[in-house]
Amino acid sequence: MTTQWLRATSTEAYDIFHTVSFVESNVTQNLSPRSWKYGLQSDNLLTLQQMFGPKTKVSVDYYICALNSTESNGDHLPTEALQREGNNLRWKLNGMKKDDVAIVADVDEKFSRDYLRALQICDLDLFRPGQTCHESGIETSTLVNEGIPSCVSNNRRWLHPDAILGECVDQVGAGGNYSLVEKNVLTSTTNYPLWTANDIRVRSGWRRCSSIKR
After folding, report:
1. Is the pLDDT of residue 75 over 80?
2. Greatest CA separation found in the chain?
3. How far apart are CA 41 and CA 181, in angstroms?
């Protein structure tokens, strides 16, 4: 998490989020060892916890990867998927409710402040209660930044962050009449399984939005 990106993301979301959940790993994306930067009571952690506003709970949980680059067969995404499971647990612990909106994003992916306010205020059919949870999420078409927030690509778009109703989030919407079968073999659009943070990240078939109208 670079300081520039944290400042850019937290400025857009200042005092909007109820909870911000980060999961830090002891390895990089290619499974090379890395040291903890946001350890308990560290200056970095204390600074991070103040960046999103006095009303926002900012949590950092820690993922310890036991794999190395030779054991992963070159596929690092399963490790990332396991790391993201910490977000669901943290959302539950910090009090996410079924009528809240869960947003999954890397630190260099952000909604504008106006977009976040629209998610809070506007009456969106996808975020009304009683969803099947089959397509109850939004994927967005967003700008791509090359390395730092001030360097915006002119010819590329990115399909993150992603947002979904809390009612459809694993650990938060638990209970109800949701199936436990795997999503990739489910054909019914009723009683769909709840979504983990990684499910939300790699979803397909959701409604794509570049703007939200009231």
Report:
1. no
2. 51
3. 41
